[in-house]
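Look at one record.

>
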Amino acid sequence: MEAMEKKIKFWEQAKIENKIGAAPSSNAATCVNGYAGEYACSGIDLLSFISLKDLGCGGDGSDMWGWTDPQGTEFALATCETGTSMVDISNPTKPIVLGFLPSNTGKSWWYDAKIYQNYAFIGSEALGHGMSVFDLNQLSTISKQYKSNPSSYNATKSATSNAIKLGITFKPNKVYREFGSSHNMVINTETGYLYAVGSKTCDGGLHIVDIRTPSNPTFVGCYSADGYTHDAECVIYKGPDTRFTSQEICFNYNEDTLTIVDVTDKQNIRLLARQGYDGATYTHQGSLNPEQTHLFLNDELDEEEVSELGGHTRSMIWDVSRLDAPKLIGDFYSSETSIDHNEYIHNGVSWQSNYCAGLRVLDARYMSEGVTSEVAYFDVSPDCNTVEFLGSWSAYPFWKSGVVGVQSIERGLFLLKPKFELKDKL
């Protein structure tokens, strides 16, 4: 829990210094000569920026996720200290902030949202919050109604951008109460199981929930043998280790180890590997490649605590082709001095949210060789260029339109358009 305690102290001071929420919303800017407006960039344009104020947030920004409705309309769920903002991004240069789903209890620096079958599942470190279950189809209904008859809503325009705000206050359809606080939500959309991590149940390990009927989540069991899990990725295994073909495997990031478990039998979960590494300070999160042979892993505190790094971001490449024998095969050291946070591999690259360095994009095609290179970036935190807990918290690169969302701690939601091309070789 050391990382979380450090963050709380830092953010409390950042609020005192008026670093949170000061930036106003802004419109599109093309990346030219290394800048899109005030933001340093390479290969990525700004489509729009929605401030924390215009999102309806009463504090810092945190995680985000995305949803596409059955008709193809794209939405962003941007979480922050007081809850979750719901945004129609189908026209990303003129986003519509539909409304806000407040916390079930009080404020928290941490919220997390994931989606299964048109339902959002939202947890928080706020005491007693539980897990909000929210039917996203109501966003589609509101969006259609507003676009067909804008006068039916008391909409307002952002004072500094094209963003529209409808000002609706949402309520959860249900609140799951088998845990109070949690740190992250992990969903395997192939199986319909949700894994809450970092709760006060299951010793902070996997708290397993059956969400195959998403309106009625049901507790299944725990995995607590390796203690606290900070984040995880759970998949149906299709990789090269044929001993586990078609099994449900979770890759857990457990503060000081990569811990791999077979969760196929929820009542008899099997530990496959628990692997540490040199310089481990806070094993935070990672992302598996589509072939399920390799993953990127990030350690949140090594830039600050491992003097040899000099504050430069370290991205670790792991070979997980044998699930019971994962091994670290390569490191990439950024030219930037920044802490790494969440990352997701998609379309041949890893979309990394590296706090003060913003969105950094690494080539993920040659992980088997233990190498990578940076191919693009967009710095969402122009006032921060060091090892601090400001800047980008998380990114969402999975919308079909190609828009990438980035939620910033001190600023808000960025909607970006990548325009870089991958080279044939590194």
User: Anything to note?
Assistant: The radius of gyration is 20 Å. The mean pLDDT is 97. Helices lie at 2-16, 52-55, 137-148, 302-305. DSSP finds four helices and 32 strands in the chain.
